[in-house]
Design a protein that fits this description.
5 strands; 19% helix
Amino acid sequence: LFLDEETKKGLLDVFLTYLEEGNSIGYLMNKIYLDHCTLLHVSQLHGNSEIYNYLNDRIGEKYEIVINGIGISDKAVAFRVAEYSVVCINEIPHITIATFNGGKPVDSNNITEWKDIEPIIIKTTLKKI
């Protein structure tokens, strides 16, 4: 589920406010991503052909999702996606905000500590890359 530029900017503002509130990881960030929520990664295709076909049939459709948390691991920071109207294979759907300490976006899957935030509803578009 991909975000448009306006949504990315709005979420970046939310994240920067989070940092201003004393959450000091901003200086660590190597790369900002903040562009999508993975529903099914190519590495998860085995055994998930029905989900793949379901999603593939919906490419280009618009979906609203609800973000309700920010999580941090030793290599990534992400928004937690709480509600979505399309299937997602990840245990905790998320939008990677940034990585650090040599991290990659996949490291967002290892986040175990989440801080609740005021829910934010965003619009996304289902795309295949």
